[in-house]
Amino acid sequence: MMHPSSNVRICGPAPKFNDYHIWKSIMSMDVDEPIGRKKLSSVLGIGEGSTRTILNILLENKYIEIGKSGITLTKEGDEYRGMILLDAKPIVLHDLTIGMYNCAVLIRHASRRISFGCEERDSAIISGAKGATTLICSNNRLIFPGSDYPVDKDTEKIIRDIFAVRNDDAVIIGTADSYELAECGAISAALNTMGGLRLQKGIKDILSSRSSTGEILSLAFAIHELVGGLPVCAKSRDDLGVRIENGVVIDNAYTGEVLEDVIRTKTCIRKIATSGPYKGIKVVVTPIDLDGKAIAAIGVVDIKEILTSKGPIVTKLSEDKVF
Known about the structure:
CATH class of the domain at 204-308: Alpha Beta
Order of helices and strands: HHHEEHEEHEEHEHHHEEEHEEEH
Strand order of the largest sheet: 10-9-8-13-12-11
CATH topology of the domain at 204-308: Beta-Lactamase
Radius of gyration: 22 Å
Structural class: alpha+beta
Strand content: 15-25%
Number of strands: 13
Distance between the termini: 31 Å
Largest sheet: 6 strands, antiparallel
């Protein structure tokens, strides 16, 4: 429940900002008390450039106003803050977690949205935490999802001392070597469980030449679904990328020769791999173009080749095969 599955490699840098930072921005603002951009950037722990991007997103959604004295929430922003408010608190549970610091988040009526806690754990790790443990309340007991196995009584008491947990609620505990990363992991996992922030975002706000795994992951999974579960690899120009097989992140610090060639040449490449485990198999990789620049590349096994072939091209895709 706490340890990453054996077929997922987690490494590389965390995203510059994600939904957590947008959430924390809104939570750090008030209708009457302005906050300055530099102070907000410090609270978020990200650069002023990323903070400006977040503020632009909130401006487009009409959730904030920026005046000479600073930034304040609008009436719409205050109402939205009430909709996405999450109860997050520090908690000490070293027997259950692997990090020095832990943050627990209570999500009301969320137990049915959780399967086994793996998605919440992976979301927390992608956001920079060391992991996350998810618990749900059933028959007035805190249990591990996907089983009837309850937490020990001491752990349950600690959690209930800080939260008024009710049946069908869920608790996500992010863990990391700093409280900030533990909170980021727990809140990110909670927001993902809730379906995200549902803000209007343009492509420039989501992808860039420096986009990290977390920022390109949703696009890669969307392509993975569209091509019927074929392996998908994607990376931005200036950062490592992601490799997905069978609905699972196999590598989130990935790069490959064809991906790099596509970004360098800014052209789609269809070719038979000449090295690596995909040697002899045709792949197709295309650039993602923005303002005339290749900011990223994404690739799959060549679907056209599979559909027109008289015999099976791929008999087995091992977890080690890469582009």
